[in-house]
Every structure is written in C-alpha cells, then in structure tokens.
Specification:
This protein is α+β, with helices and mostly antiparallel strands. The protein has 17 helices and 9 strands. A 7-stranded mixed β-sheet has the order 1-2-7-6-5-8-9, with helices on both faces. Strands 3-4 form a two-stranded antiparallel ribbon. Strand 8, helix 6 and strand 9 form a beta-alpha-beta unit. The longest helix has 25 residues. It is elongated. The mean pLDDT is 90.
C-alpha cells in the first residue's frame, strides 16, 4: 500500500500545476480567511453606498459627467441637441415629435437570463438622465434576491415626471421584464404611461443595410467609434452574478458595472448621433451611400415624399453602385407618382429603364403613365409590345428540359401586359 502512495506522490510532483490534497486544503483556508477579512466585498471593487427604505436595502452606484464628456466620437451633451422630428422619424412614431431629452431617461438592465418570464430577475438596473449641467447615472444593484422590492421602490421614484424612456431593445425585453417584476412586487409600473424610444429599431432602419449586425456593441464600434477596455461579454454576466451570490466574491462584478455603464452612455451618445446624421447642416448627414439610401427609404415608408425626392437627388449626384442607384430611382419614381408630379415621374422611370432595360416595374409604370396621364398611347403600345417580347424571351430561356416553366410568375406578367396592350389598342382604334 505504501508503494502505491509513494508512486502517486512521485507522479503528482512530476506534473507541474497539480496540487495534492494538503495544498488544496491550505488554499481553501487562505481563501476563506481573505473573504472573512472583507477582501472580496463589493465596496472594494465598486465604490457605492447602501440605501435603506421601507422595504429593505440595496446597493447603489452614482456617477456623473459634464456635457462635453466624450463617448467615442460624440459628446454626451449632443443628445440635448437632438431634434424631436429626427427622433420621431428614426422611431417611425409621430408621438415622439414631442421628445425632450431633459425629460427622458436612458435605461438598461442586466438580468439573470435572456429567456424572460416570471423567473428572470433584473439584478442591475441603470438610469441615466440630464440634470442641470451634468449627465447623471444611477446603477441600483441587488446583492441578493430579498433586495428586489427595495430596489424597485427606489426605481419607481426615478421614473416620476419622465416623458420618455430610451432603451436598446427595451420594447421587447427590458420594459416587459421590469413590468413583470413590478407587478409581482405589487408596485405600479410608471413606464407604461411614458413614450418609448427603442434605439435598436432606429439603428436597424439606417445601418442594417451596411452593417448587418446591429447589436449595441457593433453599433458602438462602427458608428460611435467606442472602444471598451476591461469589459466582459454580456453572455457571461448572469453567471457572474449567480457566482457572486454563492461566494460573495465581487472580483468580477466591477466588469459588469463597467459593461452596464458603457451601455447607458452609448444610449445618450447614439441619440445625439442619429439626430446629427439626419440633420441638413454641413456637419450632419450620413457618410455612406447605403446609409443615405436607407434614409431615403425611411422617408418613403413614412410617406414623406418631398423628402424622398430631396435626399434621393442628392444621392444620385454621387457615384454610387448600380444596385443602390436602381433602388433610389424606384423610390423616387414612386414618390413623384404619389405627389402627382408626372413629368418628374416620367423622367425617373425613363432613367431607370435606360440603366436597367429589363426592369419590368419601370416598364409597367411608364405604360400606365403614358396611357392615363400623358395620353401618349403609341408610346404606351410600343413599351407594352417590347415588354411582352422581353418576357417571352425570358420564359423560353427558363424552360426546363421537360418543357415545364421554371418561372411561373413570368406567365402572369405576360398575360397582364397582353391585357393592357389590348385595351390600349382599342383606345387607339377609337381615337
């Protein structure tokens, strides 16, 4: 038996980095002593204070920055210059035309999971707001589950007299989650009565075409030029807090507070950046063609047709990719049609067809315009006949080896143009 123990000891010594049982016990005892001495307490890593109220206590960290403090390539105070019409346009919500950044809160939560539901808890909630000449941030933190009611009661006071809550994916996640937690703790949820400005949806409207990934981290890097240092991946945050509950070791909690702080500062910065990009000033405007086209499309979706023509003409004056130019001409053509600017519409459809001879939409719009508006029936007939020939050629090229049509929609398009052609020819015979 002693021989076996000797052999095991020799093996353990040969393996660098491995510890015998006595070493493990010694390390555990030293760690316990350090914890008992308060070396890993929350206050050591994240200076703050304990708040007590009628419902118990919780931990809070307060910070503030001057308006000229930079978050990447923009100052926090630039959010105060955000125009309400820009916020409403980016949110596709006319109710936000009364947006006032001084009456808004910039909010984010860190939770125990992303699944939502009644079992998910927001253990860290941050509220940023402009007050006098500072941007202030309050991060309220649950050191254990029994501090939730006290924390939510304090948040209820922060939510008073606020008109708008600014979040990133808050409509789908943060707000519903907090509503559930407030209801379960029998506290009225004031944010149900304020406007919501969700920057995730705004970011997607203008930058998804170019960036694809519109997560806050990517928007920070690509739009705000923010570079984080000492951050922690968001996916690891729930486990860090749960480990803190078990061990009371706050070593990694500092990175969680930093991650959370940066998220909220970026909400304010991004609000200012969006308004600057939508500004007509010399320093404003989008810089990339894809973003400019997205701006044109947002105006079109919201039926702001004069702005579609205005921004579209500026984009067409630049050297842009053919695909972007094609879509821009289409949006402008449809906008001119809605405004009943028939000459402008004809010019736009002619340009689109000249640059894209196979564009069926441009052909159809020109046929309709000449038939019903300019009354140029011979031109409408010519385009119809030319389009039918083009479609029949496409159909023959897309016929499979057994004679089956691969593109069934082409047959419907041919029939529609034949019907239109027959009507035009009847008008020509009468006239």
């Amino acid at each position: 038996m002693s021989d076996i123990k000797d052999r095991l000891n020799r093996i353990m010594k040969m393996q660098s980095g491995l510890m015998v049982g006595s070493q493990w016990r010694k390390g555990a005892e030293e760690l316990a002593e350090r914890r008992a001495a308060g070396e890993f307490e929350l206050e050591k890593f994240v200076p703050g204070e304990i708040i007590e109220n009628d419902f118990g206590s919780f931990y809070i960290v307060r910070k503030e920055w001057p308006f000229d403090a930079r978050q990447g390539n923009i100052s926090l105070g630039d959010a105060l210059l955000a125009l309400p019409e820009h916020i409403a346009l980016s949110a596709n919500d006319t109710e936000l035309e009364d947006f006032d950044p001084r009456k808004a809160i910039f909010m984010d939560t860190e939770t125990t999971g992303l699944a939502g539901g009644s079992g998910t808890v927001a253990f860290l909630v941050g509220v940023g707001y402009f007050d006098e000449d500072k941007f202030k941030l309050e991060q309220v933190f649950m050191r254990d589950f029994d501090e939730e009611e006290a924390m939510l009661s304090y948040l209820d006071g922060l939510f008073k007299n606020r008109d708008t809550v600014v979040t990133y994916n808050g409509k789908s996640y943060d707000i519903p989650l907090l509503r559930t937690r407030f209801i379960q703790n029998r506290i009225p949820f004031r944010l149900d009565t304020v406007l919501q400005y969700d920057l995730l949806h705004a970011a997607r409207r203008f930058w998804k075409r170019r960036l694809g990934d519109c997560s806050l981290g990517n928007i920070e890097r690509e739009i705000l030029a923010v570079r984080r240092h000492g951050d922690v991946p968001g996916a690891e945050i729930p486990m860090i807090w749960l480990n803190y509950l078990r061990t009371r070791d706050a070593t990694k909690i500092k990175a969680v507070f930093y991650h959370h702080e940066m998220d909220i500062l970026s909400l304010a910065a991004l609000t200012g950046r969006l308004s600057q990009n939508l500004s007509a000033s010399e320093d404003g405007g989008f810089k990339h063609h894809e973003d400019k086209l997205s701006h044109v499309r947002v105006n079109f979706i919201q039926k702001k047709y004069p702005q579609v023509l205005e921004h579209g003409r500026l984009l067409l004056d630049e050297e842009i990719a053919s695909g972007l130019r094609r879509e821009c001409l289409y949006l402008m053509g449809m906008a001119a049609k809605r405004l009943q600017k028939w000459l402008d519409a004809q010019k736009l459809w002619d340009d689109l067809l000249h640059e894209n001879p196979r564009d069926i939409i441009a052909r159809l719009e020109l046929v309709k315009l000449h038939e019903h508006r300019t009354k140029n029936l011979p031109e409408a007939e010519r385009i119809c006949q030319e389009t039918i020939t083009c479609l029949e050629t496409r159909q023959s090229l897309n016929t499979g080896q057994y004679g089956r049509q691969i593109d069934d929609n082409t047959s419907n398009e041919i029939q529609a143009f034949r019907t239109r052609l027959a009507r035009i020819q009847r008008k020509l015979r009468r006239g």
